[in-house]
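Follow-up to my post from last week.
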Amino acid sequence: MSLLTSLIPSLNGGGSCADAGVEQTRRPRFEVNETDSAYELTVFLPGVSKEGLEITDEGGELRVTGKRAPRPTEGLVTLHRETSDATFKLVLEHENSVDSEKIGAELKDGVLHLSLAKAESAKPRKIAVN
Amino acid sequence: MRFIHYTQPNARSVATTPGLGGGYGRTGIENELDWLFGTALAGFRGTPRGGRFPVDLYEDKDNTYVRAELPGVSRDAIGVEIVDGSLSIQASRKQKSGEAESTESFNRLVGIPDEVQADKVSASYENGVLTVTLPRKEEAKPKKINVSVN
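User reply:
Got it. Predicted complex:
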């Protein structure tokens, strides 16, 4: 069994079911694009609305947590499920190369766009040669 | 090892057994292998998964519901059709990464029960989730039969 879980990462992701009481989280799909002045981060968070979204930046780590709104399931019979209700959690280390004061975020249609301005020290600098 | 083979989720034929070592939504090893190949061949994080997206199927006594996760797609880029007893969901998403613009398309056929009123199907898109509501035909709804005792 452990061989299988090591071969197929998603069976392991989100923690084992044996952790009773620990909330299961899933890593969302994301993309990072780098420009000279900023990092553009796109995170796919289907089913997450503004109320369920939390973004924090501390200790050189950017954390994005997205809670999916619980859907009414009274009287509904589940025939087939491929999604999970687990909370999305993404932690990215940037080691202070990002200016925390200038982070812009926009959530639209389940996609979060984060604009992370690079800290001055991380921007490419031209060095003049005498 | 027992192999459960199915090409598309069919409302009646899928047994929702919990996945190996999980149970938080994925049903069976076929999905895991599909996902594994999808990510392996498409490259690592960030690249499109080859046009597939997760779909859930629910029903109550009046409707069948199909729920698809399609974040970042604009409403006019979504096409929903009923084709031969299956629901076809198509969508495309434009991605801008710096200067380059790329389009990603999605396509999926979902088996639905026959007793659906095709002309009364409705769909809504919220927070990146598309929900298609398929009302069941009147004759197919469970009806209470009164039994009189003589």
